[in-house]
Amino acid sequence: MSAARPLTTLRTIAAIAALPLLLTACGYGSNSTDDGKQTAVAAGAKKLSADEVKIGYFPNLTHATALVGVQEGLLQKELGGTTIKPSTFNAGPSEIEALNAGSIDIGWIGPSPAINGYTKSNGKNLRIISGSASGGVKLVVNPKKIKSLDDVKGKKIATPQLGNTQDVAFLNWIADQGWKVDANTGKGDVSVVRTDNKITPDAYASGAIDGAWVPEPTASKLVAEGGKVLLDESTLWPDKKFVITNIIVSQKFLKEHPDVVEAVLRGSVKTNEWINANPEKAKASANAALEKLSGKALPANVIDPAWKSITFLDDPLAATLSTEAQHAVKAGLLEKPNLKGVYDLALLNKVLKAGGKDAVDDAGLGAE
User: The pTM is what?
Assistant: First the structure.
């Protein structure tokens, strides 16, 4: 243990104690980063119907389609002279706010904020237009304190934030065990501690939490700190697939610039093809993008296991989105939503058909 650990511990505990205030004051404590830069375009490239497209995504491996697509120029190539203006976010609510405000046009985002954004606007602000990734979520615990799933009862387990995708999944799993937790306070048979993913590894190392239900690469960071994977969320889903990242678009931008949206989707599909055909190169590309955004690349003992647990795909796995909404309702975090119209997969299926791929299904939740 380094000499700096006591100070880190105090800062971690103080940060966790301050989280409720931070979440209230800053919209879930989420900040966006707009570097003001546009991606380079080829000389003489023809513009589409918009001069630029503003896209948003997280500096997370589960958003590697966007990370790699921007890093390798695969998205820009499909857009020709229409430039990409990227922004990054730390959590879904701030990205939804940016979409509503017109600060971004298209975004990579998790299912829970997409559901919340759609329902809170009465179905008027966004559409889900593609999938992007599945998996990459794990329950990692301190093996000295928790040796079995039954041992989770009575322990302090972190999730990224109240009502986010992993928080809903963990609350649903707790209910399936027959345990009770107040969803809003996190108090009950398990203490659910809402903790920013940036803080979680230090919180674990300090003993402030006993484990966490988190996405990659946070899960593998905890394993590097001595944690053990007790449960991979994919094992709870049919075919071990569930949506972790969607692509959304503002309905206004979709209506006004369908050619730009189609180009982004072509770029996304081709990026996923490249990722799956070149996993090692793609992993390195994603890590290079993360280093640019955060100033630090992920070490091999974190990125290697994290990368293996994520599947990159175009199918939005719409049936699993509906199930996740049901989980949020069961937890008391969402009134029963009307998700009819949340998907518009017409342009994605056009792109897939042109590439000789099978169409994907909207599970009856498509726009008419």
Answer: 0.86
Q: Alpha helix locations (H) across 140-217?
A: 165-176, 200-206
Rounded distance between C-alpha atoms, residue 65 and residue 245, angstroms: 10
Q: How far is CA 288 from CA 64, 85, 183, 281, 294, in A?
A: 11, 19, 37, 10, 10
Q: Is 17 helix (H, G, I), strand (E, B) or coil?
A: helix
Could you identify the residue written with the tokens 């966007």? Answer: 66
Question: Using CA atoms, how far apart are residues 46 and 67, in angstroms rounded to an integer?
Answer: 24
Burial class (CB in 10 A: 0-12, 13-18, 19+), 202: buried
Nearest to 159 by CA among 181, 179, 131: 181
What residues pair up with 188 in beta bridges, in sequence order? 181
pLDDT value at position 14? 41
- Which residues, at least 6 apart from 236, have a Cβ–Cβ distance to it below 8 Å? 173, 242
SS3 123: coil
Residues in the chain, pLDDT under 70:
1-44
